Amino acid sequence: MDAVEVLTTRFSAVKIGEPGPPDDVIAAALEAGARAPDHGMLRPWKFIVVKGSALDRLGDAFARALEIRQPGTSAEELERAKQKVFRAPVNIVVAATVDPDHPKIPEIEQVVSAAAAAQNITLSLHADGFGCRWRTGVAAYDATVKEALGLKAHDHIVGFLYVGTALSVTPEHTGADHRRFTEVWTSEA
Ligand SMILES: Cc1cc2nc3c(=O)[nH]c(=O)nc-3n(C[C@H](O)[C@H](O)[C@H](O)COP(=O)(O)O)c2cc1C
């Protein structure tokens, strides 16, 4: 696939399974992530690759966070929260490790840079034939989850990228028609 084809054929996988991408494919995706535009070259990113038995640790953090948010949650519910991480063989957590008081670069620019990194990662995986689904959910905004991932409370998890082999996709997936939200201003307009 050439680059434009990669961009215009990206889709999110609905169901994701084994095999997950090999280490060299993950490394290439992270390298793509690290090419994200970044005002001030702050590198306000953290990529955490979670796979194999380490998924248990992330799942435990999801469950612990739910228990703290909602004391008294049943064991079954907690187990369901934990099992969410097993929806794909690899999870790449992308966080914006922001400097909220930076004198020049507003926090939102640091966050969108991390989102650009996440998108670069998904596109690289797509180019290499692997499926991905970008998810957030309450866990992304939860202090317990951030702490378990070694993040500071003011950092932002911009996405949990669920990665593996795409087993099913949205039927008849088409991109949005850009003309719905695009204006072209020219000298004649
Ligand atoms: C910041 C962000 C958070 C998202 N969180 C979720 C989520 O928690 N659950 C989900 O099913 N989709 C989530 N999505 C949307 C999917 O990743 C996907 O983009 C959407 O279902 C549209 O499908 P498509 O990517 O194939 O066009 C999120 C997307 C973004 C950009």
CATH superfamily of the domain at 14-51 and 89-171: NADH Oxidase
Query: Structural class, please?
Result: alpha+beta
Largest sheet: 5 strands, antiparallel
The count of β-strands is 5
What's the CATH architecture name of the domain at 14-51 and 89-171?
3-Layer(aba) Sandwich
The oligomeric state is single chain
Q: Mean of residue pLDDT?
A: 96
End-to-end separation in angstroms reads 36 Å
Count the DSSP helices. 6
The rounded Rg comes to 18 Å
The fold-level CATH name of the domain at 14-51 and 89-171 is NADH Oxidase
Give the topology string: H per helix, E per strand.
Answer: HEHEHHEHEHE
Share in helix? 25-40%
* Bound ligand species: flavin mononucleotide
Write the layout of secondary structure elements.
Layout (H helix, E strand, L loop, with lengths): L2 H7 L3 E5 L5 H11 L11 E7 L2 H16 L5 H9 L6 E7 L10 H21 L3 E5 L7 H6 L7 E14 L20
Antiparallel strand pairs: 1-5, 2-3, 3-5, 4-5
Helix pairs in contact: 2-5, 3-4
The structure holds flavin mononucleotide.
How would you portray this structure in words?
The chain is α+β, with helices and mostly antiparallel strands. It contains six helices and five strands. The protein has helices spanning 3-9, 23-33, 54-69, 75-83, 107-127, 143-148, and strands at 13-17, 45-51, 90-96, 131-135, 156-169. Strands 1, 2, 3, 4 and 5 form a five-stranded antiparallel beta sheet that branches. Helix 3 packs across helix 4. The mean pLDDT is 96. The protein binds flavin mononucleotide.
